[in-house]
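Working notes for the structural subgroup meeting. M.R. asked for a predicted model of this chain before we commit to crystallization trials. I am recording the input and output together here so anyone reviewing the notebook later can reproduce the run.

Input as submitted:
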Amino acid sequence: MKLETPIISDSKKVQNEIIAKIKELINYKNLEPGDKLPSERMLSEKFGVTRGNVREAIQKLEFYGLLKSIPQSGTFVANIGVIAMNGMIDDILRLESPDFKSLVETRILLELKTVKLASLRRTEKDLKLIKEALDAYEEKVLSGQDAVQEDLLFHLAIAKASGNSTMNTFMLTITPQIIIDFEKYHVCDKNQAALGIREHTEIYQAIKAQRPDLAKQKMKDHFNVLYQYCYKSKSA
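Returned structure, recorded in token form:
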């Protein structure tokens, strides 16, 4: 069951090839929920790839809940049916890396919800973390430095305050690529610095006052420039 193509530098292609082979293995051996996969070493030898490649593929399938690794025990098939698993793996293999527009749309949808939940559920500890992130952002902006990371840490603090671990996980997942894209496309205009501080402050104050509708509106206003930039830059 060796991979027909050689190991190449394109890690995503290699990863997808391994995932496809794991799918074949599960079907060929009729593995059921709870059954154990061969070890990483055995899989790497069978597929003709490195153990690191195998580990990355398994971690991706774990992320989507299709496999479960237990320390000192091994990796097991998750408790879902074979038909559902095959369909999900096919979808995973068809996934493309999200473009900037997709990331912006996803981020806006997530944050309009998390800011409302944060307004309802925030604790004093949450408020402290949001305020610290706000202060760090303001300090960077006023000193004329790039504040992309501090900006996103402010938004991550709000996601954490929402009390929804799934939404928080999604935010954590897309944040690294957002940072890369912001710097690549020079999204954060220094001319917008003062406006950014004011908008962040208004969002924080709405959360502190536990006014979810106001917090959502302030977040929506905050994203207006980003949303327009995204569509103008991609339609140009």
